[in-house]
Specification:
Helix 1 packs antiparallel against helix 2, helix 10 crosses helix 12 and helix 14 packs across helix 17. The protein is 43% helix and 16% strand.
Length: 574
């Protein structure tokens, strides 16, 4: 009893109740004999830096410990109830406790303005205020912030927590090469194009022999394999070529592991020998995933050979493979060290394949660029037919469309490379389109990726007008532009049941609808909370406007004859 009274007096008079930071703690004196012992609740307020308070805290803790020992050993109390005298200081109310927790949360989540880690004596050190650091130390913009653990209790008042803040940057180049130059042995882009001219890394690479592993799609290999082999032989680069069937049906983890196995056999250097992926989006995604997994990160280079991958898969950070019947369900955010672009590869594509890529360009036009929209509106049909070949020396339309598309994509991707924000304009066409693509895969109505995206964009265009975000004129103009680019705006695979399922998947995977919708030509915003009634009404209106058997009085857009013939011949009856 004397010890308990002494503990209460000492801790109260010396400030024991306010020595530690951001913490409420239940200190319980327990009786080993089964006696009823009340709980002493100690609410600890804000920290103070005065040594006397810390000393008081230590003294108070010693006193409480002594009291507990006395209670444990007091056999004379074995038949009595022991009551611990409560301190007179009021317990922190619930509001104050919540404020303390919120302050702790903010302190733990805040990002440091600058790093507190310095490297000297071959080791990294957390640098505290007034610490002495050698002038030659290397500073990091990363930090480690120690603090008291919010889960500390009477058993371990010293439990700690650490907030590690690491700044991870990715630098990668997207480099256009003049048409037809990439496989010209006089061009060093395939060997050194991932390294900026004048950099120390490039100078060092020029001094040593080079080795490369090339992974190429088997269709591309039939068309360009001899030129690829001749290029590396002419440049005297030791190389091996892995040829694989890179098609959507094979886009699996098994295919990814085949690439990783070859990387192991080639004994690739994880720093100086980037794997080169040559092919369409499937090839670029699979090789990217294998490179991200192999030794946790091995550099790789993307060489897109399709119009779609030229403006889509090549410029972003994502890679992946299909899994469990879902598209790209496995993957990472690890960009290539470079994407090397040469639109000469389009020449060996079918017009439908080129139009498939134009759909992704149309996505950026509708969302971000009225100028790109107007270019596609005027030149879309011939770009697909002529495969982006200029029709004269001063015809800049093909190159302008490609450059606008790439730059607008990079604008959206660079600040949100890891998709911390799920409000993404680049998701336009991908809200229900991916479900449509997978549902159509292997059927008589199979759609390419860009074609599925186009169907999605057409529906969302109708929805935007349904919600009065755009005018009827703007809706019709957009649908007309898509048709002119020779992509479908409707698919019989997209039933209302599939649509409802696709919307549910979108809400689940994107933590809300987060629908990117046009609010004019070349302008957009993210929209949520669209009612089921509006979604259904827009779906029915989309069917009326876009299905081939739509009634004449509902055909409010002009369909170019060439686009309609392409749609019937190549898509409805491939």
């Amino acid at each position: 009893v004397i010890a308990l009274v002494f503990a209460t007096f000492l801790s109260t008079s010396l400030g024991f109740l306010q020595p530690l930071r951001h913490m409420s703690h239940d200190a319980t004196v327990r009786s080993l004999r089964g006696h009823r012992v009340e709980t002493l609740r100690v609410d600890l307020g804000q920290a103070t830096t005065e040594p006397s308070i810390s000393l008081a805290a230590a003294a108070g803790l010693l006193a409480v410990s002594a009291a507990a020992l006395c209670t444990r050993n007091a056999r004379s109390l074995s038949k009595q109830h022991c009551r611990v005298v409560r301190p007179q200081q009021p317990v922190m109310d619930k509001s104050s406790q919540n404020e303390a927790r919120e302050l702790l949360r903010k302190l733990n989540k805040r990002g440091p303005e600058s790093g507190n880690l310095a490297h000297y004596d071959d080791s990294w050190h957390i640098v505290k205020e007034n610490d002495s650091v050698p002038p030659s130390a290397k500073w990091s913009d990363c930090s480690v912030e120690p603090s008291m653990s919010e889960y500390a209790n009477h058993a371990d008042l010293g439990a700690r927590a650490w907030m590690s803040h690491s700044v991870i940057s990715f630098d990668y180049r997207v480099v256009e090469v003049p048409r037809g130059n990439l496989l010209d042995p006089s061009c060093d882009a395939m060997i050194l194009g991932h390294l900026p001219r004048g950099s120390e890394e490039r100078w060092l690479a020029e001094q040593r022999p080079q080795r490369r592993l090339i992974v190429i799609d088997e269709t591309v290999h039939k068309l360009y394999g001899d030129r690829v082999r001749a290029y590396f032989e002419s440049r005297k680069v030791q190389h091996e070529i892995l040829v694989l069937p890179m098609v959507e049906e094979n886009k699996s983890m098994e295919l990814t592991l085949e690439v990783a196995k070859k990387m192991k056999e080639f004994n690739i250097d994880r720093r100086t020998e980037p794997v080169i992926a040559i092919g369409g989006g499937v090839c670029l995604d699979v090789v990217g995933l294998a490179s991200a997994l192999f030794r946790r990160r091995t550099p790789y280079i993307r060489v897109p050979t399709t119009a779609l991958s030229y403006v889509d898969a090549s410029v972003g950070a994502k890679n992946g493979c299909n899994f469990g019947g879902s598209k790209n369900r496995l993957g990472t955010y690890v960009p290539p060290c470079a994407a090397l672009l040469d639109c000469e590869f389009f020449a060996t594509q079918e017009s439908r394949d080129v139009a498939n890529g134009i759909a992704e360009m149309a996505k950026m036009a509708i969302m971000k660029s009225e100028e790109l929209f107007c270019l596609l509106e005027e030149h879309g049909p011939r770009l697909a037919n002529d495969k982006f070949m200029p029709n004269s020396d001063d015809d800049g339309a093909p190159s302008r469309v490609l450059r606008f598309s790439i730059e607008s994509m990079l604008e959206e991707l660079a600040p949100n490379l890891w998709e911390h924000s799920l409000e993404r304009l680049v998701d336009f066409g991908h809200c229900v389109g991916q479900d449509l693509e997978m549902a159509a895969l292997g059927t008589e109505h199979e759609l390419m990726h860009g074609e599925s995206v186009a169907c999605d964009m057409a529906y969302m265009t109708v929805l935007a007008q349904q919600l009065s975000l755009t005018t009827v004129e703007e809706r019709d103009r957009t649908l007309n532009m898509l048709r002119g680019c020779q992509v479908p705006v409707w698919s019989p695979v997209m039933t209302y049941e599939l649509f409802v399922e696709a919307v549910a998947n979108r809400v689940k995977n994107s933590m809300g609808q987060n629908f990117p919708l046009a609010v004019g030509i070349g302008k957009a915003r993210i929209v949520n909370d669209i009612s089921d009634a509006d979604l259904k009404q827009a779906f029915m209106r989309w069917q009326e406007l876009c299905a081939p058997n739509a009634k004449a009085n509902h055909a409010e857009v002009h369909v170019p004859a060439a686009a309609l013939l392409h749609y019937v011949d190549n898509i409805l009856m491939p």
